[in-house]
Amino acid sequence: MNLSGLRFRYWDTPGGVAPSALFHDELRAGVYVLGFVDGEEYVGQTVNFPSRFAAHRRRWPDIRTVRFAPVTVEGLDAAERSLIQQRVDSGKVLRNLTLLSQPTGASALDLVVDRQVQAAWLSADADSDDIDLDPHRLHLAERRLASRQRVDQLRGHPLFPLVLTSLAAYVQQVIPWPEETEGKQWILTALPTTARSRDNRRLATLSIQNVEMVFFGERRDRHDEWVGYTRLNTAPLPWTPRRLRRLCEVHDHYRSAGRVQSFDIDGCDGVSELLGFPEVRHAARRLALGQLRKGRGMFARAHNDTFADEVFAEIARRGEPREEPKAP
């Protein structure tokens, strides 16, 4: 394979810097070269580069540099072979060459678990615990379990069906590629403590970076009854429909986002109607995309995975064809 067509990116990898701070999650399939403090190198292939690098970092703390080039999954084997040959021809000592003979033959497992790691595990002592679990996966399990309790509480609230329907409309109409960015760039929380007081409490909030894109809550009215409300934040509209003008204000409360237009409505079922105005929908998308492009969300650890599952399930239900009434 001709390597001249590959576009390598280069990073220094100082110790103590998390992979998430170095790489973007969209770096997936490709070939890479690790550079070590002693001058040796390691060549590999992967379908999930950030995860693969994190595994290498746990095994080799002396990684100094890394280069990565995206390659289609079909071209990974040829690109890796060519890259190994190139590095050997240039006089580099490769750490992986000493262990490549252990796991025999090509396997789909090689795309998930590096062959060097397989070989090291195979040759380890019987009582050796040489497989490190990805800390991110452990945290994800803890986060999912912790999130269930809040969602169970919210499910029992009479406004939950309206909140769920509104969130499904927002995610489906405003957030691009929501299944790819969920929990990393857009964050959903159930019964957050934000802005809680004796007369006000939040039911749900969807945030991107530090901007609350849409949130639902309830406040006490003059009869001391709890009533629901919704706030939808968008980019400023060039022209606001007349019937919506009394519902909105433009402000700069979110400094990182610049000027934001907020729509405040009574009840928790008005998001679909607001997004039915093309001007509002487009402005909501502009604000969302602008914040998504900034990368991983600031409050990703607070994301409620169970709640997000409810929202995606609601989107699926909304997409199901309605049963036609049967003729008498």
Report on the architecture of this protein.
Helix 6 (160-174) crosses helix 10. The chain is an alpha+beta fold and 328 residues long. It has helices at residues 19-22, 49-59, 76-89, 115-122, 135-155, 160-174, 178-181, 271-275, 278-292, 305-319; strands at 9-12, 30-36, 41-46, 63-70, 186-190, 200-208, 211-220, 226-234, 248-251, 260-266. Helix content is 34%, strand content 21%. A hairpin with an 8-residue loop joins strand 9 and strand 10. The protein has a six-stranded antiparallel β-sheet with strand order 5-6-7-8-10-9. The chain has two domains: 3-131, no CATH class; 136-319, no CATH class. The protein has ten helices and ten strands. It starts with 8 loop residues before the first strand and ends in a 9-residue tail after the last helix.
